[in-house]
Amino acid sequence: MEFISRHLGPDAPEQATMLAQVGYDSVEALVDAAIPSSIRATTTPQLPPARSETEAQERLRELASKNTVLKSFYGQGYSDTITPPVIRRGLLEDAGWYTAYTPYQPEISQGRLEALLNFQTLIEELTGLPIANASLLDEASAVAEAVGLMSRAVKKGRRVVLDSRLHPQVLTVAAERARAIELEVDIADLRDGLVGEDIVGVVAAYTGTTGDILDPRTLIEEVHTRGALVTVAADPLSLLLLEGPGHLGADIVVGSTQRFGVPLFFGGPHAAYMAVADKLKRQMPGRLVGVSVDATGAPAYRLALQTREQHIRRERATSNICTAQALLANVASMYAVYHGPAGLKRIAQRIHAHAVAFAEAVQAAGNTVVSAEFFDTVTVSGVDAAAIKAELQSRGYLVRAIGTDQISVSFGESATAQDVAVLAAAFGAQPADVPSADADSADAADGQSADTRLPQALLRTTPALSHHIFNSIHSETQMLRYLRELSDKDLALDRTMIPLGSCTMKLNPTAAMEPISWPEFAGIHPYAPQETTAGWRELIEELEEWLAQITGYAKVSIQPNAGSQGELAGLLAIRRYHLANGDHGRDVVLIPASAHGTNAASATLANLRVVVVKTATDGSIDLSDLDAKIEQHAAHLAGIMITYPSTHGVFDPEVREVCEKVHAAGGQVYIDGANMNALSGWAQPGEFGGDVSHLNLHKTFTIPHGGGGPGVGPVAVAEHLVPFLPTNANDPDLDPAVATAISTGVPITATEYGSAGVLPISWAYLAMVGADGLAAATAHAILGANYLASRLGEAFSILYTGNAGLVAHECILDLRELTDASGVTATDVAKRLIDYGFHAPTLAFPVAGTLMVEPTESEDLAELDRFVEAMLSIRAEIQEIIDGKVDYDKSVIHHAPFTAAAVTSDDWDYEFTRQQAAYPVDSLRRAKYFPPVRRLDEAYGDRNLVCSCPPPEAFDTTN
């Protein structure tokens, strides 16, 4: 059976039933009516013939075999690590974890919220700061976010100082992001002290890229006397042995948790982190998990301070972070739970012992080590770097050459004494020169090797990971059960349809997921030599070409590691295009009110001014308001951002006209590709008027959401914008001290190919569907949405429709009249859906008081009908309130959802029955999901902000 028949939910008889409901004879006829003829593609994407699952994996095996897996001692922010098999199989590769959505409905997200709270607690305890977020995208962009945070908190300066000892890719990305928001950037060796005034902050490396360790206390005091802030970039594993920067006075600490069990993945996805001082907690970017209480007063988790969510703040946003790296943060947190503080400390000690043994060996052979103090990285100078690197590569080892006369060797978790001997021999060391570096060579009494090269003044004295969770689950059996316990609390795609409008929660094919953990893909360092990564580069080149074919653009870059970063890359391309043409005044971007919220946030980060265009009564762009805004801002118009089809769930027929109007005024057209699941195979943004688009591979192209990440947001551009695509942050010709020429692009993420590790998923999906399958998937997404709109249209008003009264791949259910009549809110409906075993549709976006429903092509008729049954049952419950049969305050919907403990309790003070609460429809008796908590008190968690793991006694229900 071909893959597309597995991917599409409805079979032929079910399709016929659905078509009959919407009034069309064929899927093609439906699509012809729904999609305006003015935007229909004139050509079919040139994709290879569809492969079977087996054939696709065989081709991936072929590509993987073209990569050479070297033992990685390269470092530069990416370290060899070992993913415990129980975590790899029970989390990274488990659909209960990777198919989950961002935990916006906390009652059905308690498992992943707990795992993310573990992550936050891990970071807080290691860094010595009280608040940490639930991950960022990568270390380089985390530093950039820290720079933005410092500039917002310290308003009197316009200069940031970056430590030259930061990793090169971090310097490049952070410097360009700072310049984009008009900060002056100084790059200086902070070992020499701080020079100058008018600074908002300093970013210091702890440790440096060549391995040296700077005591930052004097620097921190000096910066603070000038009224500025200090960010410290730190390797979290080193903080098991070194004092946390927060205890040394740092205001912000950032870094990557990659070496906590997350594979190298050719550069990503990896969970970055940020921890801040208490005074900065309400300005921190990214998501924050907090501890609140449910309706019974029991502890429960939720996303705290949700007003900071950037897609909600729009043009007032300070960051465009939407997707982060939740799945990888969960891997890192479970790695810490599994090993515990003692285990992590042993790993750190063993790594340091190997580094010390190597340093002593090469020094005994007459070589010079650039720093006497280090954690895991030893840099040797005065050598023939090219020759040594080549010799070690021939032996299967990857080390870093710095210039022509330095070699840096960075030790990871899997390093052995035999590796130390091989590495040292390349520097002329004899076996007798190589000290023992066995795992047990560290002194268990004080946690330090007898030959430590750590600075004595910075040895950690404060306890780390003291919470119970890091000291209780260390056997495989315990971890297996803990992972199952948490996933059982959640509703993910492996249990139920997730009808989230604009989020495209479709099938993540298992055949596409499997290859990402193959060592030939997962075990490759992002800076490995080109000759060792031929398979990766071939896969990426094919994927970029396929995406260009699908979108109708000239070229695609897959570097952006989230949709938000793709937006930023596209807007920076537009901005730099205008600057290169001498149009320095073009800094206004028009954004329709129907656009995705991150659009405005990304525009702000690209230093563009946002002007909102009104929505017409039918949900389309108000053309008269567009004309007025174009006329008002003509001399400054940089472009327009259009979400297409719009977030209102309709195909705007006038989109070509909109594009032509903006082009006539000298602007560029950005078409947000987040809704490509309604276009792929039928229409091409690059053909109907777009100059640039970003795509969401974690939506249309089946990379899983992972509970809030990973995401990949490729940027696609027309020919004239190709020079402005993202560049390689690790390009040795780039000088971060000098602004990149405006005639080129800038790096967006730390590595050339961003979150490459998950690209085999989208490659496999496209390889298995081919052009015809891709068009079929889109058509069935439109069919599913129109089927639901037709079935539910009499009970709930459909807010907007397009051609022939049809919707696109999603529809908006308008509950506002029902709310006025009954008091029942869209939130009430979302919570009641939990009792029916469903994740709610998108709540209150883009219109307050509504639910936006997107079924995707992957849901079969039975699941669609189950959702219809649930919604109609809830509608009947609302009608009872409208008819006066039930008071809203006493209704089942007002008190939903219900836990198993609630419906089995001896106490039941409600006027409705337990059966009505838990089993409102008979189909639930076959498979019933009970949430672990009752409805959360949203306000309590913000008034009483707690963002680390509560003590075990907080969950004692006997009191």
Automatic annotation (TrEMBL):
<dbReference type="GO" id="GO:0030170">
    <property type="term" value="F:pyridoxal phosphate binding"/>
</dbReference>
<dbReference type="GO" id="GO:0016594">
    <property type="term" value="F:glycine binding"/>
</dbReference>
<keyword id="KW-0663">Pyridoxal phosphate</keyword>
<feature type="domain" description="Glycine dehydrogenase C-terminal">
    <location>
        <begin position="777"/>
        <end position="898"/>
    </location>
</feature>
<comment type="subunit">
    <text>The glycine cleavage system is composed of four proteins: P, T, L and H.</text>
</comment>
<keyword id="KW-0560">Oxidoreductase</keyword>
<dbReference type="GO" id="GO:0005960">
    <property type="term" value="C:glycine cleavage complex"/>
</dbReference>
<dbReference type="InterPro" id="IPR015422">
    <property type="entry name" value="PyrdxlP-dep_Trfase_small"/>
</dbReference>
<comment type="similarity">
    <text>Belongs to the GcvP family.</text>
</comment>
<feature type="domain" description="Glycine cleavage system P-protein N-terminal">
    <location>
        <begin position="470"/>
        <end position="726"/>
    </location>
</feature>
<dbReference type="InterPro" id="IPR020581">
    <property type="entry name" value="GDC_P"/>
</dbReference>
<dbReference type="InterPro" id="IPR049316">
    <property type="entry name" value="GDC-P_C"/>
</dbReference>
<dbReference type="GO" id="GO:0004375">
    <property type="term" value="F:glycine dehydrogenase (decarboxylating) activity"/>
</dbReference>
<protein>
    <recommendedName>
        <fullName>glycine dehydrogenase (aminomethyl-transferring)</fullName>
        <ecNumber>1.4.4.2</ecNumber>
    </recommendedName>
</protein>
<dbReference type="InterPro" id="IPR015421">
    <property type="entry name" value="PyrdxlP-dep_Trfase_major"/>
</dbReference>
<dbReference type="InterPro" id="IPR015424">
    <property type="entry name" value="PyrdxlP-dep_Trfase"/>
</dbReference>
<dbReference type="Pfam" id="PF02347">
    <property type="entry name" value="GDC-P"/>
</dbReference>
<comment type="function">
    <text>The glycine cleavage system catalyzes the degradation of glycine. The P protein binds the alpha-amino group of glycine through its pyridoxal phosphate cofactor; CO(2) is released and the remaining methylamine moiety is then transferred to the lipoamide cofactor of the H protein.</text>
</comment>
<dbReference type="InterPro" id="IPR003437">
    <property type="entry name" value="GcvP"/>
</dbReference>
<dbReference type="Pfam" id="PF21478">
    <property type="entry name" value="GcvP2_C"/>
</dbReference>
<feature type="modified residue" description="N6-(pyridoxal phosphate)lysine">
    <location>
        <position position="699"/>
    </location>
</feature>
<dbReference type="GO" id="GO:0005829">
    <property type="term" value="C:cytosol"/>
</dbReference>
<dbReference type="GO" id="GO:0019464">
    <property type="term" value="P:glycine decarboxylation via glycine cleavage system"/>
</dbReference>
<dbReference type="InterPro" id="IPR049315">
    <property type="entry name" value="GDC-P_N"/>
</dbReference>
<feature type="domain" description="Glycine cleavage system P-protein N-terminal">
    <location>
        <begin position="6"/>
        <end position="426"/>
    </location>
</feature>
